[in-house]
Amino acid sequence: MPGSLWKVNKSVFNPSISIVIPTYNHAQFLRTALDSIRAQTFDDWEAIVVNNFSEDNTIAVVESYDDPRIRLVNFSNHGIIAAARNHGLSLTQAPFVAFLDSDDFWYPEKLQRCMEKLAQGYDLVCHAEVWVGPAERRRTVHYGPEARATYESLLLDGNCISTSAVVVRRESLERAGGFSVQPAFITAEDYELWLKLARNSARIGFVDEVLGEYLIHEGNQSRVALRNMQAVMAVFEHHRAALEGGISARRSRRREAVILYSGARGLQDSGQYRQAWRYFFKAVLRYPWVARFYAAMFFNALGRRP
After folding, report:
1. pLDDT tens-digit map of 188-210
2. Which of 91, 139, 165, 298 has its CA 20 to 30 Å from the CA of residue 241?
3. 140, 88, 94, 96: which is closest to 117 by C-alpha?
4. How far apart are CA 83 and CA 98, in angstroms?
5. pLDDT > 90: what percent of the chain?
6. Does the predicted model carry a pTM greater than 0.85?
7. Which domains are present in the chain?
C-alpha cells in the first residue's frame, strides 16, 4: 500500500486481537505504549501504528522493534483522529480490536482480562484506568456499570467508556460503521461510536480492575474541555431524535445543562475560574436542580478545584 511500511506478511499471520494506535509527534510517549503492548501476558496480537506523518522520530521508534507483530502505516488524517482509527481498522485482521492512544499505556494483564470477559458473550469490554494529569495528579476512574451502557443511558447520562480501555468485536464495529469523521464530533467521536454500538444492541461489559493509564496533557486542558463540550453537545443533538418517542423536555434540558457544566469544570480544572463562570451560569439557567453545580460553583468562588 502506498505510504505504508509493512512489517509482516499478512497472509501468514492471524492474530486474535488487532491494536490500532493513532499517533502524531508523540515519539516520546509511543515507546512506552508499545513496550506495554509487548509486555502483555496475552501475546496473540498485532499492533498497527497509524502515523499522521509525524515530524519527530516516530518512524525510528517503531522500526527499532524487532517484532513482526508491530507495523506502521503513514496516513494523513487531516486533523481527524477518527479517520486514522478507521484506516487502522480497515487494515486489521483479528476478530477483536483494541484502541490505544500513543500517549497512554496498558498494564500487563489488560488484554488477558478483557478477553476473559469477552468470552462471556460481550461485544465490548472496558476496564478501569488511572488518569494522570498535570503535576502528576492521579485519579482512578471506574467505568460502567452495565446498566449505564444502554443507548438511552449513554445518551441522557453521558459517556461511561474510555477508548484506550476497550476491546471490541470487529464485526460490531463494522456494523456500526466505525468512528464518525464529522468535524463537529471531533474529541467526542468515541462517545458517538459507543452510542451506535449500543443502538445496535451490542452487549457492553466492564472489568472493575485498573489495567491502564490515560495521560492528560498540561497546557491544553481548557481548550480541549470547551471543544469537547461542543462536540458532546453536537453528538447529543444528533442522536436524541433517534430515541423512540423522543426525549422529554425536562430530561433533554438536564442533559444539556450537564454538558455545559462539563465545560465549566474543564476551565476550572485548568485554573481559569473567571471563564468558568459563563458555563456554570448557562448550566444553572438550563437546569437548576443539580446539586453538584452549586458545589463546584462554591469552589470556583474560592478560586479552587473541588
Report:
1. 999 999 999 999 999 999 999 99
2. 165
3. 96
4. 16
5. 85
6. yes
7. 4-215 (3.90.550.10), 221-301 (no CATH)
